[in-house]
Amino acid sequence: MIGKLDDYLRFNETALSLRSQRQELLASNIANADTPNYKARDIDFSNALQGALARGTQQQGGMATTNQGHIANGPVAADGKALADGTPVLYRNVSQGAVDGNTVDMDTERTQFADNALRYEAGITMINHQIHNLLAAIQGGQ
User: Fold this and answer.
1) Which domain holds residue 19?
2) From its phi and psi, is residue 81 left (phi > 0), alpha (psi between -120 and 50) or beta?
């Protein structure tokens, strides 16, 4: 029974976790807008979500890493950096180069930050509705 409840909520839980990590990357980009040679970073959210859901399914029946020296199942970005769950962190494409080598475009970052925040709030609303529906089913629709 608990396993079915976990499966029911897993998608939104995974999506919210990735949205939170993406928000941190976007905030870091905004904070480093004036840092020379800083490269704007982001994740491919749809691929990251598919990968995280696949890893979650594999970890239920597959092998889990129990030591930091173990090799993770997830992909690694070309620059060797990844989020804690193995999601590769990518560099954003340069729309307009800067003299100091910084690739942060504040308009893009603000737009992506606001869009991600809105989608995060929508995810929270979805989880609230799911929990409300589960409680209604458990209580007999009172």
Assistant:
1) 2-139
2) beta
